[in-house]
Amino acid sequence: MEEMSIRARIVKALGETNEAEFAQIIEGIHPADMAEVLETFVAEERSAFFEKIDPELAADILVEFDEEERGELVSTYSTEEIAQELVGNMDSDDAADMLSELPEDMTKEVLSQVEDVEQAKKIAQLLTHEEDTAGALMATELVVVNQSLTAIRCVAAMRSQAEHIDRVHAVYVVDDNDILVGTLSLKKLLTAQRTAPISELYRPIEHTVLSTTPAEEVANMMQKYDLFVIPVVNAAGELLGRITLDDVVDFIREEAERDYQLASGLTDEVESDDSVYEVTRARIPWLLIGLFGGLIVALIIGKNEEDIQLVPALAFFMPLIAAMAGNVGVQSSAIVVQALASDRKENNMIQKLTKELAVGLFNGLILSLVMFGAGLLLGYDQLITLTVSTSLLTVIVFASLFGTFIPLMLDRFKVDAALATGPFITTANDVIGLIIYFQIGRLIIGY
Amino acid sequence: MEEMSIRARIVKALGETNEAEFAQIIEGIHPADMAEVLETFVAEERSAFFEKIDPELAADILVEFDEEERGELVSTYSTEEIAQELVGNMDSDDAADMLSELPEDMTKEVLSQVEDVEQAKKIAQLLTHEEDTAGALMATELVVVNQSLTAIRCVAAMRSQAEHIDRVHAVYVVDDNDILVGTLSLKKLLTAQRTAPISELYRPIEHTVLSTTPAEEVANMMQKYDLFVIPVVNAAGELLGRITLDDVVDFIREEAERDYQLASGLTDEVESDDSVYEVTRARIPWLLIGLFGGLIVALIIGKNEEDIQLVPALAFFMPLIAAMAGNVGVQSSAIVVQALASDRKENNMIQKLTKELAVGLFNGLILSLVMFGAGLLLGYDQLITLTVSTSLLTVIVFASLFGTFIPLMLDRFKVDAALATGPFITTANDVIGLIIYFQIGRLIIGY
């Protein structure tokens, strides 16, 4: 039994009709492992498995599912089942996550059928927060004590609250107006006198975020200060919820994957186990942009056809100029995008562009000198070599500035700067690079 | 006072000669914030600041520093100062991190001067672990109790151990042979009878890692199971240390930044506030590869100069073919690299290549049809249009397979697959793409 893989155990369980046997086969498998295996099953098998397990386990597994597969599966449940079996067994933030993927009227119906009215209200509240804000990340399951309690009464209060909560991340202390004032360490509580008031034991709160704080800022803050949990408050300082580091880890990973995919020319969240159709859908948009750019490049070269017929060697270096312009542009954008993501905004735009100008000139000089030497060494015509080297310098400086400017502008207009690192900037640089090349050729060779 | 920025306060403190005043100005600033500001100072100012603060604060700030600046600063200390003032005030993992950046003989000297011999041994042990393994990430500060203790004696044991530890992440339970058997929740301990034995209270351990487990695997595991802390054991099951989620977050971010930079053609960890020289050094290698590739492309086109003179329009589409080959290759590699990073290795190489072949054919057909339509619409010669469309299909299929194959091969030979997404694959695809283009042109146009 120990030797069987999780997949084999779940497949075996699926074929088992005896309830007790079934339960025994899957006992001890972590819900995250079950989710991983079940995601690879077809919809019918998945549903068959969920019909056999109890609602609490179903809820635990669903929390671990990919959004897409979860939506598919949940839509096979009735609103009543969702309300009682799934939502009733989930933390408020997980329930809100799940419901946010359903149609709005279905969500309403589900919430009206949730037994615990307080929980329904909390979830409804969570659903109002914008995506990728602290409010959307937080959970509302909290252990909260009033600062006027004594240590011994506090322990009793905590015990009753903790009963409904899987894992206690922090004990929050509030004043009589429900304003968050601090946290209480269990270490302190363990060593305190029984009659000591909490107001003398708690540690004043150092870091909080508002429900409207962007998730990226929350992630940066928790990473910087090594926080495992951070309280979310409203503008008045009332405690609304808490965000734990594991939720932030998921966010950081997703963001990083998205940026990486944008830089590689992929839209959507595409994974290696997605279908051929899904992978194609994620790839085709960027390729169409690239094709479109290529056609513009073809038109530009066509307009300079006479130059190429007079000096055919000019054509040899077109791909080189285009490729270098694209590479430099992507490098410059990537540095800006990373600076924006990690909140290192210490320099203003003018400073950034000035520095990039220096880097571009420096890079450009080195590369065009190498190019000039290589060109002469390979026996190309001197004027051609001079044209290519000069163009290279000009194009590199231009692409550096352009690659820095575009993401900064996008960010200023609240568009995701990472978009700039995709094929868009490469294509634009290709086109402009070749225009520069032909102009300089005309100046130097003088045809 | 509240209104002054942290930077302004630190600058003000630097000018203050009165010790008490100095302490008052910087009171309450988080060490991470101090580190952030101090990193932007010149070395002399930084050293001046560190001379004024007490060793404990200095250690806290240094832990938050970038490696490079930390190495610079620490090397101005004597080995005795490092041993007593810095190492003495750090957790074992942070101390090992700091010492790993010093020359080996200096590290030895420091360790021989550390007062707490047990700590020195622990650090020396930590320094033996390979980079990016669980052993290198773990800290050895632990709260450990024997399972034979009663609840009341356990609390006493915990209290005395916790005194030396900043933050208690978990209480580990071991048997008489020091083999890790479980963890103890404080909730359970709070509610237990005073004479209950720990063996009846602990939760059996579910997840452990070995000290040799790769950091990436640790990160994936902690994320999957939502763990805040994971114990590190040796092959016999003895408890060696623990890894907390905040350390893993740092690792995840660094890995993601590295992959992103490789995909954007940057080497080294380059940040927007690095000097012009540092940024250039990170960018030049990839650009030189690109230049080298461009020169090869020029040679190939030169070899086909007659073709171009006969059919000049052939030259128009060279950049398009090269760019598309590059784009498709990067897309394919990126998907593989991500799959490798997140441990989704469910398919073998043949399956991956077969699927990629399907995706390449699908993408290629769509794009070459679009190309064919656009070519005719724009009035290009039919044979030229046919050549470009056919080449596009061939090149896309080839680049898909090549882009999938290279990172898989690199991974098999234990080379970082992310390298494949840089300009290397773009350049290789440029070259091969154009060779294919001219061959197909020769076949179709028959010059």
Give the CATH class of the largest domain in chain A: Mainly Alpha
Elements of chain A, N to C (H/E): HHHHHHHHHHHEHEEHEEHEEHHHHHHHH
Number of helices of chain A: 22
Low-confidence stretches of chain A are: none
| CATH topology descriptor of the largest domain in chain A | Tetracycline Repressor, domain 2
Q: End-to-end distance of chain A, in Å?
A: 81 Å
Domain count of chain A:
3
Strand line-up of the largest beta sheet of chain A = 1-2-3-4
Kindly state the percentage of residues in helix of chain A.
55-70%
Task: State Rg of chain A.
Answer: 30 Å
Average pLDDT across residues of chain A? 86
CATH H level of the largest domain in chain A: which superfamily? SLC41 divalent cation transporters, integral membrane domain
- Number of separate strands of chain A: 7
The coarse silhouette of chain A is: elongated
Biggest interface, CB < 8 A: A-B, 109 and 109 residues
Percent of residues in beta strands of chain A: 5-15%
Report on this model:
2 copies of one chain form a homodimer. The first copy, chain A, has about 450 residues and is α/β, with parallel strands linked by helices. Chain A has 3 domains: about 5-130, MgtE N-terminal fold (Alpha Horseshoe); about 145-245, CBS-domain (Roll), CATH 3.10.580.10; about 275-445, SLC41 divalent cation transporters, integral membrane domain (Tetracycline Repressor, domain 2). Helix content of chain A is about 65%, strand content about 5%. Chain A starts with 5 loop residues before the first helix and ends with a helix. The mean pLDDT of chain A is about 85. At the A-B interface, helix 3, helix 12, helix 13, helix 14 and helix 15 of A face helix 3, helix 12, helix 13, helix 14 and helix 15 of B.
